[in-house]
Amino acid sequence: MGFSRQIAMLCLPVFMMACVPEPTVPAPEPLTPEPPAIVVPPAEDRADACGATAMQDLVGKPSSAFAAMTFAGPMRLIRPDMAVTMDFNPERLNIYLDEADLISSVTCG
Fold this sequence. Notes:
Helix content is 19%, strand content 14%. By secondary structure, it is α+β, with helices and mostly antiparallel strands. The chain has a domain at 43-108: Trypsin Inhibitor V, subunit A (Trypsin Inhibitor V, Chain A, 2-Layer Sandwich), CATH 3.30.10.10.
């Protein structure tokens, strides 16, 4: 056998291995956490979560009417043309005042 034939015979298994398909390994699933479940109470339970219904008698009174009051939850006083956040918090009491500093509405949010 010639030298080139010996080289070809030695390289033949290497070339044959190149023809064998590589085993495929499935890509691992990305680890994304499940979003937390959001539990929303029924509308009738959250409609007055801040107690605004009980404070409707304040409408039409001056802003000083609630100055001595204490509130169990968060409260914000909203004056005309005042910037407020748009986030909704059903437990937050919103007291709206008009230009005359009278309470125009009391809502939750």
